[in-house]
Amino acid sequence: MGRAILNPSPRTEGACRRGGTVRIRLGEWRGIPxxxxxxxxxxSVILAIAFLDGAMxxxxxxxxxxxxxxxxxxxxxxxxxxxxxxxFFVRTPLMxxxxxxxxxxxxxxxxxxxxxxxxxxxxxxxxxxGFALIGLLTLPAFGAAPFMPHGEVGPSVGGVACLGAWVTxxxxxxxxxxxxxxxxxxxxxKIVFFRDPAGDLEHLIAFPLGMTMEWLTRKPExxxxxxxx
Length: 229
Fold this sequence. Notes:
With 229 residues, the protein is mostly helical. The chain has helices at 2-6, 10-30, 32-35, 37-53, 62-68, 82-85, 93-114, 116-137, 156-169, 172-193, 197-217.
């Protein structure tokens, strides 16, 4: 028996290694809520609001879109709060499904790499600044009225900005491939299947905005950065 313990068979060693790998993987999955609290909170709140306002199974009413979503006119009135509230709403079940996939991909990647506090700050600052820029650029004086946001909802402006920031935070050798891949996915998935001139303009502004914000505020990434809170 002593020899069996001191000199385990190849089969026993393989079983131990597999068991250890399974335990490590389960531990990684259990650690997701601790590493991605902002991403999980956004997903949960969006899902809960979609259930309450009926967008989970139907359509968000136009009145609710105008009340909670961002419109260009909100920049000059009392509706500036929509720069924040619109991120928690979706229009349809299909949009909800897309957002539930998009948020972990865009926001989750950046939060995991740069930490929760940085992801929180970048998402909301980019969401506010991005919509403000879009509102100004689509004023009639600039001739871009067809792209003017009107009751825009969803977290995609802040999320796309986080995606751009994540690309900027990657080692330089991977950036070009990621940029090409994201551009291809966007062109095929968003413009072809979810054509929306105002939304397309929002995303095309948000991505370089996120890249710029990350570049301006970046610092050398140390071992603790990916777990910063």
